[in-house]
Write a structure and sequence with these properties.
77% of the residues lie in helices and 0% in strands. It has 314 residues and is mainly alpha-helical.
Length: 314
Amino acid sequence: MGRIVSRVNEWLDRPATLRRAALALLVANIGIVCTGGLVRLTGSGLGCPTWPRCTDESYVTTAEMGYHGVIEFGNRTLTFVLSVFALVALAAAWRQRARSRGALRGALWVLAGIAAQGVLGGITVRMALNPWTVAAHFLLSMALIAVAFLFWDRTRPERPAWRAPRAMRSAAAVITAVSAAVLVMGTVVTGSGPHSGDTTASRTGFDPEAMSQLHADVVFVLVGLSVAMWFGLRALGAPLRVTRAAAILVAVELAQGVVGFVQYFTGLPWPVVILHMLGSCLVWTATLNLMAAVTRGRAQAGSEDRDHSLASTA
């Protein structure tokens, strides 16, 4: 028994274990957004009509619930898988807390976010898929993806410092804010459209076409800002990893735009809508990656300057 514990501790002490656990959390949080979309797009949002039980008498789906119950209960089960990843990441972060600053706090935030997401999911079911609680459920997932990304970014190897000008840091912050606005507008479009998750679910009452146009307008702003950011970073001679982050964001945005147009002009077929939801997660992750690329080097450079100053004083 002692040998097994020793080997587990040795495995948890490896930096690669922490990095892989953090990456698994990020990927799993993106994946559960897509499976949640499948629940809504197949009309299975109330496949389990209550929470935390699936029915008043059972915690699991029953034959009477049909395939809707299977899909909804399957999505609920994935929360436990996500929790296992989070606990492994937390254990690794605890073992490595002395050399991986901030990782333990990140792991705790991810675990707390998963718990909050489960509770909000239950509230969403109990409110019969009210479009505003559904929107909040999705946006909390985006916040959880952000926390998972920051946790993963903390576990990545140190990169050479680069002093990003204040204008570039401000531009990255604006792009992040606009990207978040795109996500918010996307939930309004969804809450106004036909895929409610259940035939009895209410809608926002907004005109779907008007909301789609407004959503597209904000997307155009985001793409324009991202392209300008890429040109600006190249003009400043930013490191390749930084300009690459901007290029990846532009590429993902353009691909997402193509998927968006396809789903709009083909009548919102559910496979394309799920692909669009995946694209939303990828755009958001690429946005966070750009923000990290521009700001993390600045923080490292500042830290090096402080260390050099202290050494000179000594």
